[in-house]
TrEMBL record:
Organism: Amborella trichopoda
Signal peptide (from-to): none
Keywords: ATP-binding, Cell membrane, Kinase, Lipoprotein, Membrane, Myristate, Nucleotide-binding, Serine/threonine-protein kinase, Transferase
All copies of domain Protein kinase, residue ranges: 1-98
Protein name: Protein kinase domain-containing protein
Principal localisation: membrane
GO molecular function: ATP binding; protein serine/threonine kinase activity
Topological type in the membrane: Lipid-anchor
Compartments it resides in: Cell membrane
Example GO BP: brassinosteroid mediated signaling pathway
GO CC, any one term: plasma membrane
InterPro entries for this protein: BSK, Kinase-like_dom_sf, Prot_kinase_dom, TPR-like_helical_dom_sf, TPR_BSK1_C
PROSITE patterns xrefs: PROTEIN_KINASE_DOM
Length: 278
């Protein structure tokens, strides 16, 4: 049984002073009012135990139990420290009085339990979200391969003048990266996607997501998280960017943050579905 221990902060704390402080708290709990420590023993002496007890405790204890607890409080409040019980003696005295174990505090205090709010409905996860929640990187890879670049629409508006040889080389690097990603050569995919990204003429959230997953599969969660965050910067309401962040955060053992990202991604998925349905 846990023992409530308190001590005045403006005094030097000793084992004996802690026991004395416990006695004052015990008496306050029993009587239902604050009794100055200097008057505590005078209050106890010559009083009927039942008259000392808080009326709210009526029926919660037997007269024998009440007498024993008051007696214990008086021992704790003795003026001479050597006459007070030690912690082991307190436990030995209180343990037999604990007849109800593992009873919720609201039942012991006679308080009606507040009804718990019903759990909010769980948002359904997309296939990518489900794979992410299970940390099934293989399934995540298959989904990113299948979705290709359909979510990149509108992220780049290039003029005719920008279709230079450099641009063609950059797109060729992305194509090589796609082939390596499809074939699960993730180190090669990272290299090729990096060539595409470093040129900077085009930005592609899908490339960042694919390179993020490639980093995860190469056990590089920090780099994976950076790429997933870059994907979000390019496409702020793209659920995939949040799912990739959730996966990277899970790998980094940041599980609370990962759960928040999963919820955010699911909310964005739901918003997207509502937009399509309207």
């Amino acid at each position: 049984m846990g023992i409530l221990i308190t001590a005045w902060t403006n005094r030097r704390v000793t084992k004996e002073s802690v026991i004395y402080s416990y006695g004052t708290v015990l008496l306050d709990l029993l009587s239902g009012k604050h009794i100055p420590p200097s008057h505590a023993l005078d209050v106890i002496r010559g009083k009927n135990t039942l008259l000392l007890m808080d009326s709210h405790l009526e029926g919660k204890f037997s007269p024998e139990e009440g007498t024993e607890v008051v007696h214990l409080a008086s021992r704790c409040l003795q003026y001479e420290p050597k006459e007070r019980p030690n912690a082991a003696e307190l436990v030995a005295a209180l343990t037999p009085l604990q007849t109800k174990r593992d009873v919720p505090s609201y039942l012991l205090l006679g308080i009606k339990k507040q009804e718990e709010a019903p759990p909010s409905p769980q948002r359904p996860l997309s296939p990518l979200g489900d794979a992410c929640s299970r940390m099934d990187l293989t399934a995540m890879h298959q989904i990113l391969v299948m979705t290709h670049y359909k979510d990149d629409e509108g992220t780049n508006e290039l003029s005719f003048q920008e279709w230079t040889q450099q641009m063609r080389d950059m797109l060729e690097a992305r194509k090589r990266g796609d082939i390596a990603f499809r074939d699960k050569d993730f180190k090669m995919a990272i290299d090729c996607y990096s060539q595409f990204i470093d040129v900077g003429t085009m930005v592609s959230p899908t490339v960042y997501a694919r390179r993020s997953l490639s980093h995860l599969l190469c056990d590089q969660p920090d780099a994976a998280l950076r790429d997933a965050m870059q994907a979000q910067c390019v496409h702020p309401e793209w659920p995939t960017a949040f799912y990739m962040q959730a996966a990277a955060l899970t790998k980094l053992d940041m599980h609370n943050d990962a759960a928040d990202m999963l919820k955010e991604a699911a909310a964005l998925e739901e918003k997207r579905q509502r937009g399509r349905g309207s």
